[in-house]
Every structure is written in C-alpha cells, then in structure tokens.
Amino acid sequence: MKLDKATIEKLAEHLENCELEARDTLKITDEHPEMDWDDAYAIQDEIRRRKLARGTRIPGLKAGLTSFAKMKQMGVETPCFGFVTDYGSVPDGGEIRIDELIHPKVEPEIVFVLKHALKGPGCHIGSVLAATDFVMAGLEVIDSRYRDFKFDLKSVVADNTSAARCVVGSRIRSVDAVDLRSMGVVMEKNGEIVALGAGAAVLGHPATAVAMLANHVGARGQEIPAGAMVLSGGVTEAVAVARGDSINLRVQGLGTVGCKFV
Ligand code: OOG
Ligand code: MG
Question: What distance in Å separates the CA atoms of residue 238 and residue 196, rounded to the nearest whole number?
Fold first, then answer.
C-alpha cells in the first residue's frame, strides 16, 4: 500500500459523493500516481463500508472488463471486480432516472446466482458450475464517475468499477439447460439492434469470469456468499443512453429483460 488510511478515506468519500450527487471528477491516479492495486481495492472497500453503515445491502458482486470488446473499448487489458447495491437494482421493465446518473451506458450480461459460497484460490469453471443455482439475463448500467469515461484500471477499481444500476430478467435456468458459450445475446435500443454477441465473448466462457472473481476475493480473505448474484461482465461494448431510450435484451434460453431511461 502506498496511500495512508486518511487518504484512502478521503478518496472513497469523494468518489462516493460523486456517485450520489451525479457529478464527474478527474481520475484519481492523476493526483496519486503512486497508488497501487491494494490501495485501489481499499478505496472500493471503504465505499462499501460507508454504504453498509448507512443500511445499504449488497446483493451481489460483479466482474468487469471480461470481454475483448469491453477491454478494447476502455483501453485496458485485465478484468476488474466490484459490487452491486440494493438501490441500484431495478425491476425488469422498470424506469431508470437519467438525472441520477452522469453519462450512463448499458451492457448485456449473464448473471449467475450461487447456491454455495465460492472462495479461491483454485476456483475454475467446474467449481463455478457446481456452485451455481441458476443463471439469468441481465443489463448492467455503468456510469463511471470519471470525466468522459476516461480512466485507468486502478482508478476504475477505486470507483467500484463504474457500477450504477442493474436489471435482471425473470427467467431462470440451470447451467446444464443452456449452453453458456454459444448462447446468443441481442441488445436493442428503441427497437434497433445496437449490440450482438455470444457468451463465449466473456473470457471463452462466462463462468471463467466468476472463477476469477472467486479467486480474487479469496486472495483477500473473502468469499462470494451463497445466494449472491454475480454479473460476469459485459458481453459486448457498452452503449450510451439518453432520456427516453428503451433497452431490450434477449439472451438465448434466458428470455428478455428491459428498462427505460426517463
Ligand atoms: C468499467 C466496468 C466494466 C463490464 O461489464 O465490463 C463492466 C467500465 O467500463 O466503466 O462493468
Ligand atoms: Mg458490467
């Protein structure tokens, strides 16, 4: 760790205030170039601690930057991990207020819900499939707190990997009832197709992203708890949205999920 406790707390408060007040900021590595990975996750943990202390629930975790399309779009080469909040969870077909966000984008995701806790090291696709209760289609709304979505990986980790809102579908399937690699993903904005992909776009198999997350939290002495939902990462590039836009996602075998920006 390169940053002291007071600096970590100050940066966490700043980034969380930007989230809650929907205002942007410059990436924090500009002012703290010495910051390391432990600092970045310590800032994210402090944001989580602040939310929990206020009564926020954390229904799940997320992996991000797990597809080549996303890595290329954001100019980074490794996945990152964060958490999702209860107040960020939107019902299928629900409305998302654009004035609560800075510059939201949506991305299609395959969501895992676990029946058993997972903790690395040593988790692999098999451990994830054995621990999965069911999978669902999901839309993640990301909203980097950094101006123009310009960041490096440490800054985005500190900013809870741009997590903002998340919508999950209502059709659940066991992992052996679907083909997680070849399953097609079609996302429409206002009735027009804006992104297309297949499950394999996420690290060859989306369960790999969940295994990486389990190994990541395990290395930090934590686990993915039973019952948690896990977003395995955007299958395609994220698509910018504006007030009035409707998004509809179809995932083969998992039905549809949608939301509207108002
Ligand atoms: C970082 C978050 C990425 C995903 O699914 O790839 C993410 C960002 O692109 O702002 O959630
Ligand atoms: Mg995502």
Answer: 11
Contact call for residues 54 and 222 (beta carbons, < 8 A): no
* Four-residue CA torsion sign, 194, 199, 203, 209: positive
Residue 101: per-residue pLDDT: 98
Q: Can you tell me which residue has the tokens 């970590």?
A: 8
* Number of folded domains that form the chain: 1
The per-residue pLDDT of the chain, averaged, comes to: 97
Read off the CATH number of the domain in which 204 is found: 3.90.850.10
Ligand 2 being an ion, which residues bring their Cβ within 5 A of it?
Answer: 64, 140, 234
| Burial call 91-109: b when 16+ CB within 10 Å, e when fewer | ebeeebebeebbbbbbbbb
Q: Which ligand number lies closest to the CA of residue 67?
A: 1
Q: Per residue in 133-160, pLDDT tens?
A: 999 999 999 999 999 999 999 999 999 9
Rounded alpha-carbon distances, angstroms, from residue 96 to 90, 110, 235, 245, 261: 7, 20, 21, 10, 5
Answering whether pTM is above 0.90, one says yes
For ligand 1, the distance from its centroid to the CA atom of residue 167, given in whole angstroms, is: 15
Domain of 94 in residue numbering reads as 5-261
Please name which of 49, 29, 11, 64 lies closest in space to residue 202, comparing C-alpha atoms: 64
Q: Cite the beta strand spans of 34-145 per DSSP E.
A: 60-64, 80-84, 89-90, 95-96, 105-114, 132-142
Question: What pLDDT band is residue 74 in, cutting at 50, 70 and 90?
Answer: confident
The answer to whether the CB of 234 is under 6 A from ligand 1 is yes
For residues 63 and 79, what is the distance between their CA atoms, to the nearest angstrom?
A: 7
Number of Cβ atoms within 10 Å of the Cβ of 238: 24
Can you say whether the dihedral through the CA atoms of 127, 128, 132, 134 is positive or negative?
negative
